[in-house]
Every structure is written in structure tokens, then in C-alpha cells.
Amino acid sequence: MIAFDAAKFDYGQGPILLDLSVNLEPGGFYFLTGPSGSGKTTFLRLCYLDLQVQEGIQTLFGEDVVGLERDAAARMRQRIGVIPQVCRFLDHLSVRENVALPLDVTGRRSAQRMENVDDLLTWVGLIERSHSSPRELSGGEMQRAALARAVILSPDLVIADEPTGNVDREMGRRLLDLLVELNRMGRTILVATHDLDLIRATKSEVPTRVLRLSQGRIVQAGSEL
Ligand SMILES: Nc1ncnc2c1ncn2[C@@H]1O[C@H](COP(=O)(O)OP(=O)(O)OP(=O)(O)O)[C@@H](O)[C@H]1O
């Protein structure tokens, strides 16, 4: 699904990821951990082609993505749903319209797909908030709206950056339950988190792998913490 081999990345002020070799299998549920500043967000941005490695090999969905042109990267990104650390919405649009935005951007909006939007809003428990402004949502509700938006194009891969960082434990579990459900439907999931309790709780539901970032490398910790 995603593989790196001896990949390097820096923002121009010294290496952040300096010898990245890891292989994420299709259908897997992966947690990414590591100290603050170890490069978790950077790694995720590489995975969803928001950044590119400067050296080494990266493949995504079996294709070489090093030096990929912007348009080709944008097409590939349609197969990836991203829940960023800070969820941004267009405040002048309703929650429903925000979730539908990827359909508009890719020219796929139709009456039937808008039914999918409503199904997704029901799935994440926000159907009652469909016509609210995103400004009226709580942190946990925003995360769930972001999840609905991330999966509206039926992505093969879902990436979440600290999705439970700003929500209470119960809301964090709820969000993880939704990600577990997606994984059971065959989606590959990659979640960056500091929350070891959350990892333990998820492991009791579904087989997971924990990847630990340390000193610019991924230490593949397998199923152990
Ligand atoms: N856009 C950027 N330009 C320059 N340096 C950056 C940029 N983004 C991140 N960095 C630096 O890269 C390093 C890794 O940052 P990153 O956000 O990937 O770490 P992280 O593990 O996700 O951290 P946290 O757990 O605190 O969110 C840090 O030293 C950070 O200061």
C-alpha cells in the first residue's frame, strides 16, 4: 500500500526523516507513535503526497511516487482520506455541504451521492447537525464530521493525525470505533497518536501494528507497544 526504502526528508533546516524504510500492507491498521517533534505529521504528509521525499524510494498503491507531478499526485490523493490534526471547515456552508465538498471538487456530486452524505452523517452520529454551521460543533463532532468528509470518496487508505488529541476519552473511543469499522470493511488505516491506552483498546478489537518513529527512522514495533 505504502512503502519507503532508505527515504530521506528535510524541510531545509536539517534532516527530519533520515533513513525511512517501512512497508504498510493493504488492509492493515497501523498506529504511528513517537515523541513530540519526531516527525509523525511529516511522515503522514509524505504518505498522502502533501510532501515528497528528497532521496530514496517511495511507492503508493504500487506506483513509484518520487518526483510525481502535481496533477498525478492530486489524482492519487483521491484514494486517500485525511483527517488532519486541525480540522478546517468552510463556516458559511452547513456541515452536510462541508462533508459533500470532495464530491464537488471532483465533479461527482449527484442526488444518489448526496444520499451517501446523509448515510455517512448518520453513521458518525451527526445527522441531526446536518444543517448546522461547523462553528456550532464540539471538538469531537468536528472530528467525526472530518471523518465523514474523509471517506465520502470511498478511499482505500484513511490517515488520521492525532484524531483524539482534543477530545475526551469517550469521544476518542467513538472515533476509533468508526476507524475500526472502516478497517473491517477492508480499508487501510494509519493513525498518529500519543495515546497508548487508545492503542491498547483498539488492539483488543482488531489486529494492529504499531510503528514507532525514533531519530528519523521507523522502528517497526510489530504488534507490541
Ligand atoms: N513546515 C515546516 N517547516 C520547517 N520545519 C518543520 C515544518 N513542519 C514541521 N517541522 C519540524 O519538523 C520536525 C518534525 O515535526 P512534526 O510535526 O512532523 O513532528 P510530530 O512528531 O508530528 O510532532 P507532534 O507530536 O508535536 O505533533 C519538528 O522539528 C518541526 O519543528
From TrEMBL:
Annotated keywords: ATP-binding, Nucleotide-binding
Pfam families: ABC_tran (PF00005)
Residues annotated as domain ABC transporter: 1-225
MF GO annotations: ATP binding; ATP hydrolysis activity; transmembrane transporter activity
Regions that span the bilayer: none
Cellular component terms (Gene Ontology): plasma membrane
Matches recorded under SUPFAM superfamilies: P-loop containing nucleoside triphosphate hydrolases
PANTHER family named in the record: CELL DIVISION ATP-BINDING PROTEIN FTSE, IMPORT ATP-BINDING PROTEIN
Record's protein name: ATP-binding cassette domain-containing protein
